[in-house]
Design brief:
The structure is a single chain. This protein has 447 residues and is an alpha+beta fold. The chain folds into 2 domains: 230 residues, Porin; 145 residues, 60s Ribosomal Protein L30, Chain: A (2-Layer Sandwich). Helices cover 28% and strands 34% of the residues. The protein is built from 7 helices and 15 strands. The strands form 3 sheets. It has an 8-stranded antiparallel beta barrel with strand order 2-4-5-6-7-9-10-11. Strands 14-13-15 form a 3-stranded mixed β-sheet. A two-stranded parallel sheet has the order 1-12. A hairpin with a 2-residue loop joins strand 9 and strand 10. The protein is rod-shaped and about 150 Å long. The relative contact order is 0.10.
Length: 447
């Protein structure tokens, strides 16, 4: 009666586990980098192999019987993978275990040679932990070769028939006993959802009568098997037990790095093109293609013939006036206009761009040049901060910027000279901030 109750309880447990197995929810797959991954964590296995009472742990006497006999057994399991290296599985096993030549009979006697036993495993169920020990590949996300070890506890129903002589046969009837299964093996991944499973299990019985002979120690038997493992879940996803998180992270990090390098390269290329475009635009606008002394940006009559006398806008004079050399008289009022322009003159820091607040006084200088036909020398100066080449270039560009502005306001380009002296002509010491401020200047000389 108790046997029937136990068997019924195990069947109900199996049905409940199977229901949970096939009713599991599979989360939606995601292809986003570094996002949560979906794995197949449930699997079923079927196997077959050889059962024998011999194990490596039986000692010199090899248990109650001396000579093992191999016989076919078959089994299966349902497994839930918890982490890439650990899973829990429910194992099932059935078959026959055989042996010959009882060790308690006289060695070499006919009685020993005739003795044998057959133990029939009616059913067997065990709950085991499965430890995968080689899924840490550095280069492959899915391990092809995965060694493992197992250990757990189980319960089985078996009966033993033992013969010592033709007239001395006995049967234990079906008995139910606990046992401890310990095993090792390896799996070969042939597809994302399919593995070849090769293993060897030793089962330690909590009984001395498994083979029908009550010996000094508990009995043992082994099961060498081969089979297949089939993963359950969404098609195309990997099995968790075969997944190497280290290789996956390495691959995803490499892809992220490649994307960043491409993005940086694209930005650098765009910046280079922008710089080239700005340089080309500057050269186009500030160049003087027709050589008339007026920059292209301000030249309203481009392409004038060489030697043509032009006005401040680059257009030919209708009737060039006769140039009469006369003494130029510069008054104090004229010098005051120039002095005010010098005081109000400001550039952007480290650049030759004139700030807007300087325009009104520069306009007065331009008007003075047009009215009195003065000549003007512009001399740019800097302090000694920075390299000589940079200071020479900046002083020249600032003087040229003022010349360009005055010409744009109508002044005669041929009467304005722009020169840069850099830090070579200081008017104060460069050892103090006040002295360096005085040295950063553009001098206006009317004549």
């Amino acid at each position: 009666m108790n046997s029937k109750i136990t068997k019924s309880a195990m069947i109900l447990s199996l049905v409940g586990l199977s229901t949970s197995l096939f009713a599991q929810d599979t989360p939606a797959d995601s292809t986003s980098r570094f996002s949560k991954k979906d794995f197949r964590t449930w699997s079923i296995g079927l196997n077959g192999g050889m059962l024998t009472h011999y194990t490596p742990f039986n000692g010199r006497s090899n248990g109650d019987f001396k000579t093992p006999q191999e016989s076919w057994g078959y089994g299966g399991y349902i497994k839930k993978q918890i982490t890439p290296g650990f899973g829990i599985q429910a194992d099932f096993l059935a078959g026959k275990v055989k042996g010959m030549r009882a060790n308690d009979l006289v060695a070499g006697s006919s009685a020993q040679d005739a003795s044998h036993f057959v133990t029939r495993i009616d059913w067997s169920a065990a709950l085991k932990g499965n430890f995968t020990i080689a899924n840490l590949s550095m280069n492959h996300k899915r391990s092809v070769f995965s060694p493992y070890i197992t250990a757990g506890a189980g319960y089985m129903s078996s009966s033993a028939n033992v013969d010592f002589t033709a007239s001395n046969a006995a049967s234990t009837g079906y008995e139910e006993n606990w046992f401890v299964p310990v095993g090792a093996g390896f799996k070969i991944g042939v597809a994302k959802g399919l593995n070849i499973d090769l293993g060897y299990d030793v089962n330690f019985m909590k009984s001395k009568n498994f083979d029908g002979v009550t010996g000094a120690a508990n009995d043992r038997f082994s099961y060498a098997h081969a089979g297949v493992e089939i993963a359950l879940g969404k098609k195309g996803t990997s099995q968790l037990q075969n997944y190497s998180a280290i290789a996956a992270l390495r691959e995803e990090s490499a892809a992220e790095s490649a994307d960043l390098r491409r993005a940086l390269s694209t930005q650098e290329e765009n910046a280079r093109r922008d710089r080239e475009a700005l340089v080309a635009k500057y050269n186009q606008e500030m160049g003087d293609d027709d050589g008339d002394g007026v920059a292209n940006k301000f030249d309203k009559c481009p392409g004038t013939p060489a030697g043509t006398v032009v006005d401040g806008a680059g257009c030919p004079l209708v009737a060039p006036r006769q140039i009469i050399k006369e003494k130029v008289i510069v008054t104090e009022a004229d010098r005051k206009v120039v002095s005010e322009a010098i005081k109000n003159l400001e550039f952007d820091l480290g650049k030759a761009t004139i700030r807007a607040k300087s325009y009104p006084t520069l306009n007065k200088v331009a008007a003075l040049l047009v009215e009195k036909n003065f000549s003007l020398k512009l001399a740019g100066h800097t302090d000694n901060t920075g390299s000589m080449a940079t200071n020479m270039r900046l002083s020249k560009e600032r003087a040229e910027a003022i010349r360009t502005y005055l010409v744009a306001q109508g002044a005669n380009a041929s009467r304005i000279e722009a020169t840069g002296y850099g830090p070579t002509q200081p008017i104060a010491t460069n050892k103090t901030a006040a002295g360096r401020q005085k040295n950063r200047r553009v001098e206006f000389t009317l004549y």
